[in-house]
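Q: Predict the bound structure with zinc ion.
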Amino acid sequence: MRKFSTATTAAIGFVAALLAAPVLAANVKVTPLGSHDGEFCPQDRALVLEDPNGTRILYDPGRTVAGPNDPRLGKIDIVLVTHMHGDHVGNAHIKDVNAGECGKPETPVSAMPNSNAVNIALAKKSKIVTGSEMQAFFAAKLRTNGGQASDAMLARFGGSVTVGGVRIATVPASHSNGLDPDYIGGDLGKSMKDAGIAGYVGEATGYVLKFSNGLVAYLSGDTGITGEQEKVVRGHYAAKLAVMNIGDGFTTGPAEAAYVMNDLVKPNAVIASHANEAGTKGGKVVPGSKTETFMKAAKMPVHIPLSGKTMEFDANGKCAAGC
Ligand SMILES: [Zn+2]
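A: Predicted complex:
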């Protein structure tokens, strides 16, 4: 067998290092934007997901992003909204990070009748990508506030759109999705409010994102247990990372969420979300919390979204840094 010279071996090593470098760097960065630095608090839903190519996606800004001027936002190319409930689209929001206690975050700033999501998208000139029939609502809000209606993009069940190199699909969520009449206003809004009727904007959704490094991530939104979590999210899309709501009462609780992860989606890692409790104190998981119950019940690594702490995930959903 022919032996390589030292110089040839060195050259091969150099080329191998060059080839390996982009792979090492090709992680998806996930940064939670919660109400309190370094903690996982009751209202926390918002995440910024950054593709290795620099595309930045804001998921469910809700109430813990301090409006468009929140310095943590930076560039936002895409805003995702799973459904129209105030804690996801953002009917109100914090004034500043760390105001009040983690267990009782203060959200004194109203974002009505536009929503935090729309205000952020207008300021950042982001696309809003939604499924169901929410796209028409967002198009109207953007248009009436000086934005581009075409920036509200549709990804209805079964289809997908690619924005900034990230493929975005929506999946069904078993939840409700009534539009608060305060977003409508006027006599119609008042009549609907008086009658206790919400506006129709179609079904609530989750998302499946495929990033440019190959990572497929499932963002559950508010949902119960659904057959699609097995047949669609795992069977078709093969998600390797999940963001799963664990709060109970309004969505799957810790036991149901663990079943969804262990038996239906089977990702390689999961980020807990939507706990509706102070899941941490001093950055440590609170004993006896729903967050702890979920961590113990899930068979794969559970990562806690500590606000402001960036986690990095490789193509297989394995945490490569920051967890
Ligand atoms: Zn909801």
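A: Helices lie at 6-25, 86-90, 116-124, 134-144, 186-195, 228-234, 254-265, 290-297.
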